[in-house]
């Protein structure tokens, strides 16, 4: 008798699970937490269906009171895979009990929702959720999804640019550059020496000019009253090396999406936030 009762309970449990799965499968709004009124639920359900049909992807919103022992990422990925959604899409899972939500992406959704784009979307949704404005958060997500897919298809997904540190830049100096620099150095040196000589000459006005060197000769040697080494000038040629400061050049590349493989073997991107 006990075995029959257990068998009946098992059959009922399997039937119930199948019924729940069938009920959720294909539905783009699954409000298991009953956060929306019936009127709002119908409105959001119709909006998600129209948006998904227009874009050719699945845009899904799901609320739950528990992640059932999984983390937010694993739960969101599994729910997307197990409920008949297509290979391209984006899903918002909201757990008000834990104060956490997760955005899971698949296929084209990983291109439209980059890591940077997901962060922006989360930043916009958090204030609504903190204020208990569920409909405001859902509207924000739906509008963001629509814009992100359109921008991705237009070739400009919402993303930021990662810049790598430029390597050393080598400057090759040509023969003409060397000639010009040498001539310039001689001209500068000549002008400096001319100025110094003119200054020295002006300080010697009290000395009469001599037509021979006899005055400096005593016996068989030269009489020098002063000896000094004078450092006239120093010529330094500086060649600047241009730096690559063009932030639109080849040094940058899109940040893109971080992709992981779920327990079900499907590739997903995603990100979330606590609030």
Number of strands: 10
Strand content: 15-25%
Oligomer: single chain
Mean pLDDT: 80
Structural class based on helices, strands and sheet pairing: alpha+beta
Number of helices: 7
Radius of gyration: 40 Å
Distance between the termini: 51 Å
Helix fraction? 40-55%
Largest sheet: 6 strands, mixed
Contiguous low-pLDDT stretches (5 residues minimum) are 5-23, 242-252
What general form does the structure show? rod-shaped
Largest beta sheet: what is the strand line-up? 1-2-3-4-10-9
Layout of helices and strands, plus pairs?
Layout: H1 2-24, E1 29-31, H2 38-55, E2 58-63, H3 72-82, E3 89-95, E4 100-106, H4 108-112, H5 115-130, H6 134-153, E5 161-163, H7 175-202, E6 217-218, E7 221-222, E8 252-254, E9 260-261, E10 267-274
Parallel strand pairs: 1-2, 2-3
Antiparallel strand pairs: 3-4, 4-10, 5-8, 6-7, 9-10
Helix pairs in contact: 2-6, 5-6
Note down, in words, how this protein is organized.
With 275 residues, this protein is α+β, with helices and mostly antiparallel strands. 44% of the residues lie in helices and 16% in strands. It has seven helices and ten strands. The chain has helices at residues 2-24, 38-55, 72-82, 108-112, 115-130, 134-153, 175-202; strands at residues 29-31, 58-63, 89-95, 100-106, 161-163, 217-218, 221-222, 252-254, 260-261, 267-274. Strand 1 (29-31), helix 2 (38-55) and strand 2 form a beta-alpha-beta unit. Mean pLDDT is 80; it is low at 5-23 and 242-252.
């Amino acid at each position: 008798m006990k075995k029959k009762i257990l068998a009946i309970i098992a059959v009922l449990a399997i039937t119930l699970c199948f019924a729940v799965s069938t009920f959720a499968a294909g539905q783009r709004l699954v409000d298991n937490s009953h956060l929306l009124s019936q009127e709002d639920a119908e409105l959001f359900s119709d909006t998600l269906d129209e948006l998904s049909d227009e874009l050719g992807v699945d845009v899904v919103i799901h609320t739950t009171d528990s992640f059932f022992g999984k983390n937010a990422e694993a739960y969101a990925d599994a729910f997307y895979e197990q409920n008949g959604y297509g290979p391209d899409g984006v899903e918002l899972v909201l757990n008000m009990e834990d104060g956490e939500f997760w955005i899971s992406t698949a296929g084209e959704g990983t291109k439209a929702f980059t890591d940077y784009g997901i962060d922006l979307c989360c930043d916009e949704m958090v204030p609504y959720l903190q204020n208990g404005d569920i409909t405001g958060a859902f509207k924000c997500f739906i509008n963001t999804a629509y814009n992100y897919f359109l921008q991705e298809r237009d070739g400009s997904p919402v993303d930021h640019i990662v810049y790598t540190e430029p390597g050393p830049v080598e400057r090759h100096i040509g023969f003409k550059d060397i000639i010009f620099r040498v001539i310039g150095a001689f001209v500068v040196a000549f002008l400096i020496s001319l100025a110094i000589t003119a200054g020295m000459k002006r300080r010697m006005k009290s000395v009469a000019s001599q037509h021979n060197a006899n005055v400096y000769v005593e016996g068989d040697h030269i009489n020098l009253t002063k000896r000094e080494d004078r450092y006239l000038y120093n010529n330094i040629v500086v060649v600047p090396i241009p730096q690559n400061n063009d932030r639109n050049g080849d040094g940058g590349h899109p940040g893109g999406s971080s992709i992981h493989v779920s327990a079900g073997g499907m590739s997903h991107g995603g990100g979330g936030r606590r609030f």
